[in-house]
Structure formats: structure tokens, C-alpha cells
Amino acid sequence: MLTIASGNQHRFCDGVSRRNFLQIGALGMGGLSLPQILRAQDLSGKQDSHKSVIMVFLSGGPPHQDWFDLKPEAPAEIRGPREPIATNVPGIEVCELMPRLSRMADQFAFIRSIVGAEGRHAAFQCMTGRKSNRQPQGGWPSLGSTISKLQGPADPAVPAFIGLSPKMRHSPWSDAGQPGFLGVAHAPFKPTAEGKADMVLNGVNAERLDDRKSLLASLDRMRRQAEVIEEMQGIDAYTKQAFGILTSSKLAQALDLSQEDPRLRDRYGRGSTKPAGYGDAGPLLNDYFLMARRLVEVGVRCVTLAYGRWDWHGKPHGTIFEHEEEHFPMLDQGLTALLEDLRNRGMDKDVSVVVWGEFGRTPRISPKVGRDHWPKVSCAMLAGGGMKTGQVIGSTNRFAEHVEDRPVGFNEVFATLYHNLGIDVNTATVTDLSGRPTYLVDPAQPIQELV
């Protein structure tokens, strides 16, 4: 959460506490201030290239056999009520609830054969590509943290790694990616850590974020306050850079969706901040897709977001097919709008998009009319990044129980994303807490069908 708080100690004439003013929000990073984080981040290598990744985490695990690995010839208790529809790529079919995707299938690569899932409800494996049962001291760093370490920010006023995942009652689903042994300097910057409704910029809450005039006035006040403090007390370069990030017109404007044409926001679908489904769910907030595009456009290298709640075991919380009728059309709208927008702006070759969840769902529909956890096989969609799209990679048997050909590991997907960023996983390393250079993924090559 970005909060500029005022306290009671050593107030200046404008009522702002110097201590609180310099500690520009803990950002959920163990209480470190943003200037401290930037100071640590200064040790990172920085490059001029600007390729980006947007990772969409479908928290709970989407049903692969109801999405784009449908089995229409299987018995009813396997196939369910979903019908496949043809796409603009001959031979590729997707769920009938995703007509927009069917018209843009040539821009996606569909992986039906992801293997190696741990079977636990957490974003960890999708964020790191690693197994959690053999972590080094400090833990494995996430994709965004590794990119931050290796490439640094593309713009000094824009963080390299931003997490848009909203807060959820089941916190492992809202994990935007941890820095692990790379340290807090490479943790994600979280402007919407508590959900858009809790974003605060010096008194401007989310309801007023849509009022651009109020937002810009607030930022102007912050800049004036910074100038007063610098003149009276002096602040170091990292504190100045912290204010640069928090008051940067680039970052502020990227987060201000009111600047977009309302027709484009409608194309994305806007969505809702309310939990999707039940209980511990995240929202179907399609504004996050648009915000992700705006963030990579101004220089963010990695954006992660969690979308919806895909853990559908059935009654008494509603059948899996009831939830699909809510989730699939919203994902269909937001995701295709993102790809269309990137392409219209000439960004599709520079921005890689990956969409996946922590595991698949059981082939057989349960008596509660749900599908349970199924780590034996899951799926993913990739797009952009200059990849060879319009194809299906891998296949499962006739009941979608296990991989029949071309198994793809989490590490191979990560190797592909790094490749798209210009990072060679065969040579690039990061140093762990023992001082030992560590490769970015378990031994793997980029998916050759894509690159």
C-alpha cells in the first residue's frame, strides 16, 4: 500500500512529520522504507533494453478439460456440458464460453501438457518455476525479482517489478512473487496490495483515484513538501529517487485508468472488486489487465496479477459449471483485449504474456458437481514476446488424465520467458546468500516450438 502518513513528531509548518515523510510506506516489505530499498537496489546491474512479462495467475487451478483441452468424445462424467468451438486456427478448439479467444487463437500458444505441479494451493511454483521442498537459504526468488536483479529498472522513476495481485483471505494465492535470497531490494512494488479500494496516495483513496484532478493535485503537494524538506534538512539521493517513483508522472499516470478512453476500458470489461465465487476468492477485476498494459508501456519489466478463484469443488459453493459461466467470459474479454491492445500499440513482440494456475482439475466430475485437484497435468497459454503462436503444444489421453506426448515443465516455461527478455538461462546466474552463483531455473531450454 502506498501511504504517505503524517505523525506527531517534529512537524514542519505544513503539518508533515519529517520522520514519517521520509519513510515512504513499508510496501509490505518487512518495514523497510522505499529509500532503503532503492539504496539496496543500486547494487543491481542495469541494462537499457526493455522487454517485459505479464504473468496472469489463475488462483486455484483452472479446469484444463473445460478450457482448451476438451474431450467431446469422452463419457458425460468426464466431458461435462461444455462444447468445443472452432477457432481461427484450423484444428484448434476452445471452450464455447470464450468466443473472443476463438477469433484470436492465432495469437496464442496453448500448452496442454504442463507437468511437475506440486498440488498445493500457492502461487509459488508459477512465480518461481521451482519446487518448494528444496529451497536454499532465503528462498527461491520469483521471476520478477530475478529480472529486477539482472536488468534493473528500465526507467529510474519506474520500478522493474510490480505486483497487482489483490489481497485474499487465502494469502498464498495473492502472492505477487517473493524476492527470496535476492533480498528486499527486488521485492515487487505493490501499488494495489490491498486491492484498488485501499490504494492511498497522500489522502487520495481509490474512489478519488478516478478523479485525475485530485490525484495530480495531491502529487503536486507531495512535490512541494519534498522541496521544503530538502531545503530545510537535506535528503539523500535515494530518498529523492523514492519521491521520484511515488510522484513520477509516468507511474502515477499508468495507475490512473481515468486517462483511458472509456470505450477501451469497456473493451477490457472493467470487472468488479468483489470476490469472485466465494470466501477466499480474488476479484474478476479486468481493470488489472489494462493497468498491466499501461505499466509495461512506461517501463515496468514484470507485472504479476492474480485473477479470480478457480478452485471449484462443487456444492454447497456452487457447481463448477456455474462458476465457469462467470469466470470464462470475463477472462475471455480481458485477456483478448490485452493482446489486441498490445498489438495495436506495436508492443506484442516486446511483451510476453503467460496465463496459468498451480495445477489442473480431476477428469471425473465429482458427486458435488466439481473437479478436484489434479497435479498430474495442467495447462498454460502464452502470447506475445515474438513467440510462434497459433499452435498447440502437447496432448493428454482421451480422458485428460495424463500427458500423452510432449510434457512441458514449469522450468521450460520460465526458460522461454527469460529467453524472450534476452536472458540466456545457460549462462546467467544470480548469487545466493552463501555467495554461490545459481542458475535461474532447473536445467531446461526454452520451448523450441515457441522460439
TrEMBL record:
Superkingdom classification of source: Bacteria
Matching PROSITE patterns: TAT (PS51318)
InterPro entries: Alkaline_phosphatase_core_sf, DUF1501, TAT_signal
Cross-referenced Pfam families: DUF1501
PANTHER family in alphabetical order: BLL7424 PROTEIN, DUF1501 DOMAIN-CONTAINING PROTEIN
Protein name, UniProt field: DUF1501 domain-containing protein
Source organism (scientific name): Gimesia benthica
Species classification: Bacteria, Pseudomonadati, Planctomycetota, Planctomycetia, Planctomycetales
